[in-house]
Amino acid sequence: MDSSHCTDPGAQQTYQSQGHEESIAEINTYKIGQGKSAIVLFTDIFGYSFINARKLADRFAEETGTTVLIPELFHGDPVNPNIPNYRESMPDWLKKHPISGACEIADKFLSTIKGHYQSIQIIGFCYGAKPVVYLITHAELSSTIKAAIVGHPSRLEKQEAEQIKRPILFLCTAHGFIVRPDGTPQVNEQSEKAVQDAIEYFKKNI
């Protein structure tokens, strides 16, 4: 990944998620909310079961009135920060889970849910930012997306900026600060501001 912060899970959080899991396009998916518009969240390397991601999805659903969906990108094999020396296995893990595979899943997922919601917005963090940019740089896919957000993105390329076809909000300071804040007051404050900015952006673009 682009920095050691990409593999840092941040301060441990305790939370009971409010949604449920279901299969969409044969992709395991976390779903929360009953809104007529949808937000699709693409995760970092810790995957769709990571409690921080589900906590964020629940908040987006509650404060925007949308349905929030988190598709599983890693075929049941996310990075597990509880395994000793897990960072040493990252090169092999990335070979098993190339970003192209996540983009293919994002393509399949969006192609399946389009038409089921009045509008669709997307958001991605770190590893998950790349599928977001992939979706909004391809004409046949971007037409289904109202707007997009990326938070502390990684693996983006300069030339992709010229190909972006939908409105996009970049949330960038310390890497991982939104989904995986380190628990310090300054980072927690930055994280909360970014979440609020995302919520207001979503509400504006529903």
UniProtKB/TrEMBL annotation:
SUPFAM superfamilies membership? alpha/beta-Hydrolases
Q: What is this protein called?
A: Dienelactone hydrolase domain-containing protein
Ranges of compositional bias, category Polar residues: 1-18
Q: Which residues form the Dienelactone hydrolase domain?
A: 36-193
Query: Which stretch is the leader sequence?
Result: none
Q: Name one GO molecular function term.
A: hydrolase activity
Region Disordered, as annotated, extends over 1-20
Q: Which InterPro entries match?
A: AB_hydrolase_fold (IPR029058), Dienelactn_hydro (IPR002925)
Superkingdom is Eukaryota
Pfam families in the record, alphabetically? DLH
